[in-house]
Amino acid sequence: MLRNAKVPGPYIYVGHSISGFTARLFAQQAPQDVKGLVLVDTSNPDQFDRVLQLVGPQKEGEAAIIGALREEASMEMVPKEGLLLRRSADEVRPLGPFGKMPTVVLEHGKELLPPGTPISAAFQALWHQLQVKNATISSNTQLIVAKNSGHYIHKEQPELVIQSIRKVYDSVRGNTLLPACGQPEEMLGGECIKLP
Q1: Which of 5, 89, 159, 181 could form a disulfide with 45 if both were Cys (CB 3.0 to 4.6 A apart)?
Q2: Which domain holds residue 39?
Q3: For residue 17, is it within any domain?
């Protein structure tokens, strides 16, 4: 599509949510074209099984949100979008690392589940673990928590997404490692997380 539109590469692929799978797949299949990634609160291939483990079997009187999480994690396909979730996760899971490809992983900072949901803290911790795992796809990665955002970081803190794209662009263009985290992220409501 980009070639047909005569948009010259190389490209930085920015993916949000489930489109993180597409970003990773495209980067693996076209490494000559994709030189950097920005993953905005993206899915992880293990998330469906991990969420099902977290919510457990249906219980009498459980909160509706827990049932909704179970249903979503059990879906084979997203009806409106026609996305084959499990198949997509299976395609992405075995993809190898991306070497030193500049990659910024943005993670939401606000709790996603309604206040008082019994598994809210556990869900937040699980999502963080999955984002840390997403950040291991490259040895040149930063994980930044968007402290003032829910899942739609690009809508709630767009300047943090733009800063991340610029950072990846500068790294690609200069053929350098990503700069150390610092003041720009903090000024934009982000917190850089040290990776293990």
Answers
A1: 89
A2: 11-45+91-193
A3: yes
Quote the number of domains for the chain: 1
Helix (H) / strand (E) element for 106: namely: strand 103-108
6 occurs within a structural domain: no
What is the C-alpha separation between 66 and 68, in angstroms, rounded? 5
- Which residues 6+ apart lie within 8 Å of 195 measured at CB? 132, 135, 136, 141, 143
In a domain, 75, yes or no: no
Q: Could you give the CA distance from residue 34 to residue 39 in angstroms, rounded to a whole number?
A: 13
Please report, as a single letter, which amino acid is at residue 36. Answer: G
**In the predicted model, is pLDDT for residue 81 greater than 80?**
no
Average pLDDT over all residues of the chain: 92
| Higher-scoring residue by pLDDT: 96, 95 | 95
Enumerate residues 6+ apart whose C-beta is below 8 A from 120.
111, 113, 114
68-96: buried (b, 16+ CB within 10 Å) or exposed (e) per residue?
ebbeebeeeeeeeeebebeebbebbeeee
The secondary structure element, H or E, covering residue 90 is helix 85-92
